Amino acid sequence: EPEVTQTPSHQVTQMGQEVILRCVPISNHLYFYWYRQILGQKVEFLVSFYNNEISEKSEIFDDQFSVERPDGSNFTLKIRSTKLEDSAMYFCASSPQGYTDTQYFGPGTRLTVL
Amino acid sequence: GDSVTQMEGPVTLSEEAFLTINCTYTATGYPSLFWYVQYPGEGLQLLLKATKADDKGSNKGFEATYRKETTSFHLEKGSVQVSDSAVYFCALSDNYGQNFVFGPGTRLSVLP
After folding, report:
1. Which pLDDT tens digit goes with each residue over A8-57?
2. What are the b/e assignments for A71-104, b being 16+ CB within 10 Å?
3. Does B77 touch chain A (CB under 8 A)?
4. Interchain CB distance below 8 Å, B89 and A43
5. pLDDT digits (tens, 9 = 90+) for B28-70
6. 3-state SS of chain B: helix, strand, coil percent to 5?
7. B45, B94, B98 ranked by CB distance to A48: nearest
C-alpha cells in the first residue's frame, strides 16, 4: 500500500541554523500539507500546497518557513533560522483531492533545536 | 473559527471494557469528520471518517456517528484491547474553510 515517507526521522540542529525536512507524498495525490506537534500537545496545521503554490497557511507559518516541491516527488519544509520553540514533531500529509478528502500522514520528523 | 473539542484524558480502561471518547465540533460549513489514531512512537493513521450527517464510520471495531444536531462525533468500541492503547484525535475539514483542524487528542491506556 502506498505511503507517505519522511526523512530524516530525527534532526538535531543548533539555534539559528537552517533545516530542511523532506517528504515524499503518495504519487497520485495532488494536495500536500505540513503539520507540527509540540511534545504532548495538539497537532497544528502549518500549510497546505496545491498546484505548486501555497493554498493556505496558519499563523505559525511565518517568514521563517517555506515549502517547495522541487521535483515531481519531493515536498520540503524549510525553516530558515531555527528557534528553540521550533522543536517538535513535523508531519507531512497528502490527499488525493482537497481538504474534505482523507489525509495520509507520514511517520514524522522529530526536530530538536539546541 | 472552526474548532474541535475532545474529552480530557488520559482514559484508563481494563481489557474488554466499553470505550467512549467524546468529540464535539464547531464549524462554519458542513465539515467532514475524522478520527485519527497515533500509536506510541508513530505517526497519525486514519481510523475512520464520515462525510455527512447521520453517516457512521467504522473500522477495527471502532465506530462513530456524525450527529449534526448535537455537532458531535463520539468514538466508541465495544471491547477494547491492550493494543488499542494510543492517542486518539478527532478532526474536521470544512468545505467552506481551507484547513484541517485537530482536537487536542485523548490518550487511552488499556490494562490487561
Report:
1. 999 999 999 999 999 999 998 989 999 999 987 888 999 999 989 998 88
2. eeeebebebeebeeebbbbbbbbbbeeebbbbbb
3. no
4. yes
5. 778 889 999 999 878 888 999 998 899 999 999 999 999 999 9
6. 5, 55, 45
7. B98
